[in-house]
Amino acid sequence: MTPAIAVTGASGRIGGAVARRLAGAGVSQLLLGRDPARLPALPGAVKAPPASYADAEAMRAAVDGAGTLFLVSAHENPDRVRGHKTAVDAALAAGVERIVYVSFLGASPDATFTFARDHWHTEQYIRSTGVRHTFLRDGFYQAAFPAMAGEDGVIRGPAGDGHVSAVAHDDVADAAAAVLLAELEDHDGHDGATYDLTGPAALSLAEIARELSRATGRTVTYVPETREEAYASRERFRAEPWQVEGWISSYEAMANGELAEVSDAVPRLTGRPATAFADFLRENPDSHRHLAG
């Protein structure tokens, strides 16, 4: 029997979508999550015992028997890199031989977007272990932009006239499934590869607002902010300083051109074009229904 693929975050949007694609291909899986009750019931899939990345013993038990680990990055938190390292160590101790990690576009130690730095440090750690690996550097998710508009239909942030090559969740899931399934078909050409997963074009926030206007029938606009204005407008959320810095630096990364790269990795891996933002909005009306008013 082919060693199972352990899929983390299998109750989430990316992990769950990948798990469904692997099930459709008849692949045996271990589905991981903190709450097994939320994991999907899929043919050929076994729900692993509950585990969080920071719990080494639980992670080792959860991935036992898996040959490959599909590692979806943890939600942003100050100890995210430490949790990733613990999860990687636990997986290797359990006998995992390959890790496919969901990273972020432009990951680097000095990325403007502070959360992207976590991904670089995680990538470096995975490399240092010598385990076979593939990194999927996703761009911003297209689904995030409708949520960026406030109740007044305005997107605010210090992005200037910068551009972003946002990607659809389904495109990421299809690309990830292609990478995971390739080895089962005796292809190992993805070992050591890093793929930038983006949409087919880089759009400014003004262009994104116009697409949202077309989709919702309501005027959505983009208002550039200074860094100081951005901090002031987010005070009402009473979020932790590291979280607010992450939010604001994401816009600044757009302004700096760090999120504008357009890659052909999605069509190369999936055999179809990457989803345009306008198409995403048309195919996912629930993503912007709150803006229609």
UniProtKB/TrEMBL annotation:
It is an enzyme of class 1 (oxidoreductase). GO terms for molecular function: NAD(P)H dehydrogenase (quinone) activity. Gene3D superfamilies: NAD(P)-binding Rossmann-like Domain, UDP-galactose 4-epimerase, domain 1. Its EC number is 1.6.5.2. It holds the Pfam family NAD_binding_10. Residues 9-180 form the NAD(P)-binding domain. Keywords: Oxidoreductase. This is SDR family oxidoreductase. It comes from Streptomyces albidochromogenes. The lineage of its organism: Bacteria, Bacillati, Actinomycetota, Actinomycetes, Kitasatosporales.
